[in-house]
Amino acid sequence: MNIRERIEYIETISLNAVACLSKNCGERDLPEEKDDVRTSYMVDRDRIIHSKSFRRLKHKTQVYIKTWGDHYRTRLTHTLEVTQIAKTIAKGIGLNEDLVEAIALGHDIGHVAFAHNGEEVLNDILPKGFRHNENSVRVLKKIEKSGQGLNLTSEVLDGILCHSGFGDKEKAAYTLEGQIVRYSDKIAYVNHDIDDSIRASMLSINDIPEKILNILGRTHGKRIDTLVKDCIYTSINNINNGITKISLSTDIQNALIELRKFMFEYIYKGSILKVERDKAKFVLYQVFDYFYKHAEKMPEFYQRIVDEEGLYQGVADYISGMSDDYCLYIFNEIYVPKLVIY
């Protein structure tokens, strides 16, 4: 028995009966020999965290565009917070932490620069629309490693694809581990965006409806604690009653939905950040338009995508991979006049 087999055995005797066991993992697009130390989900986690697209998350905006404050979240720190919340929930229920970690680390790989503003621009431009969760899967399967992809397991890709949204209309991940990441994403971003908004003096705790605070808690830590524990205990109760589903209790879920709705109206789509959102969208529209008209200016890799999958797809892949800083750099290089006479 090698080390991987020992870890897989420990999973079988320690995890909940409904957990996704590493030894039963789904197929990869390309068959490969299993590692003798790491389980398949550990391999996936490592491939994601060592990828270029993961590293670029540090320069992609979460909510606040081009802030120089050291304490504001970026897409990378958001991803780390989601991962830790998800692992706590998984451990509490007795599910596969390695699978949860791989899904959580990869869930926002496909996000565009300038927060959701970038996603809105590409969704408006592209004939087939654009969704960051679908793009995350595309990046991991077709863009990483110069087009080879990371060859991840089907459970990880499904969890990433199904992490977005918060209603019954969106398809849920077929693993409970994937469903955990979906909840953890909302628990993380709603609460850390409140924290960042208060830090930026754009929100006061007293602006949040009192009813929500009474249910979830008045502090950042208390709200996270309430939501995480409720998710664990409610999901355990579901499983014990034959319901294979991750969920929150009705009162807690309704409070989170109302809090999320408040943040969309007050911060994400509110008038406070509208000017900066419009600036970011303008930059992205102009950069996309330039490369759509001058595809030969893109790196050779993306020119190959243009040849194989069309102009829209090639430009979208190039634009969606840009960090905020790099997108602004490109915009300045293209459109801002240079001092040529000294």
Query: Which sheet architecture does the biggest sheet show?
Result: none
CA radius of gyration is: 21 Å
Which fold name is given in CATH as the topology? Hypothetical protein af1432
Order of helices and strands: HHHHHHHHHHHHHHHH
Strand pairing plus helix content: what structural class?
Answer: mainly alpha
The portion of residues forming beta strands comes to under 5%
Annotated CATH homologous superfamily: Hypothetical protein af1432
Shape: globular
**CATH class category name:** Mainly Alpha
Tally of individual helices: 16
Euclidean distance between termini CA atoms: 72 Å
Number of separate domains:
1
> Whole-number average pLDDT?
94
Number of strands: 0
Which architecture per CATH? Orthogonal Bundle
The percentage helix is 55-70%
Poorly predicted regions:
none
Notable features of this structure?
mainly alpha, 61% helix, 0% strand, globular, 342 residues, hydrolase, 16 helices, Deoxyguanosinetriphosphate triphosphohydrolase, Hypothetical protein af1432, HD/PDEase_dom
Structure commentary:
The protein is an all-alpha fold and 342 residues long. It has one domain (3-272): Hypothetical protein af1432 (Orthogonal Bundle), CATH 1.10.3210.10. The chain is 61% helix and 0% strand. It has 16 helices and no strands. Helix 14 runs antiparallel to helix 15 (311-320). The longest helix is centred in the middle third of the chain and has 24 residues, at 176-199. It is globular and about 70 Å long. Pfam families: HD, HD_assoc. It comes from Clostridium oryzae. Residues 75-190 form the HD domain.
